[in-house]
Amino acid sequence: MRSEPDLTVRPAGAGDVGPLATLYLAARAAAVPAIPPPVHGADDVHRWLAGRVESPEAEVWLAEREDQAEEPLGLLVLEGPWVQSLYVAPGHTGAGIGTLLLDLAKSLRPAGLGLYVFETNPRAQAFYARHGFAEVRRGDGSENEEGVPDVEMAWPDPGSIAGLRRSIDAVDDRLAALLAERAALTAAIQRLKPVAGHAGRDREREDEVVARMVRLAPALGADRLRRIMQTVIAESLDAAAGESGAGEQSPAP
Predict the structure, then answer these.
(1) In this structure, how many other beta carbons lie within 10 angstroms of the beta carbon of residue 223?
(2) Which of 36, 62, 110, 157 has the most CB within a 10 Å radius?
């Protein structure tokens, strides 16, 4: 593999938007027919990149020669854990620029990355596979603007321990939000009940909750789900009791 001399990578600024838009459009055009041409023109691409540069939810990086006398040679756009765009200027592919930008993305998102490639672009799929990405699923094109089948890939490999742990972390994040939401609803109910707290527990209602969980997740088993839900209910009640007493003063001795 040949290499570009004196390469450097830096965050893009407002003054880089024009050259980066030119690089993006040129790289897309050079890759046809392996990928479809963009559905947006130069003005739209310029506005989109300007928005990404200014957005706190995105990061735009460029690769260039250290003397900065040349146009940018590579573009990386990160949005959360997603590689939204990674393009290398035509005539400079195979020189390690894509690898340099992808390694940067990994260092910035050590917990994991996702991306999409077009199904018609096996070269890109092979590139990402060499760098530890693995296929997650294939789409029919209904979720992208081009309407062309695509492949979702993720790093680390979703089937590896690291990849599975990443999936567990994502589930745990959703679970934490759901538990907080349930506790808040429990607190609202307690303020309306004539007898609040554990003394006012409705055992028949709790049995209905457990029975519904068993229907939704039978693989966990009725006994296990009963223990889980009893813990959730008890801890939600305790959280509600703590909330109601959070602003109270302790009685004077």
Answers:
(1) 10
(2) 62
pLDDT value at 24 more than 50: yes
Please say whether the dihedral angle defined by the alpha carbons of residues 219, 225, 228 and 229, taken in this order, is positive or negative: positive
Among 20-24, 120-124, 159-163, 222-226, the minimum mean pLDDT is found in 159-163
- Check: CB of residue 231 under 8 Å from CB of residue 179: no
Query: Residue 179 sits in which domain range?
Result: 162-244
pTM of the model: 0.66
Distance, CA of 18 to CA of 14 (rounded, Å)? 9
Burial tier of 31 (Cβ tally within 10 Å: 0-12, 13-18, 19+): buried
One domain for residues 142 and 167 = no
Instruction: Please give the C-alpha separations between residue 226 and each of 32, 108, 180, 199, 236, in angstroms, as whole numbers.
Output: 57, 42, 20, 19, 15
Is 182 a domain residue?
Answer: yes
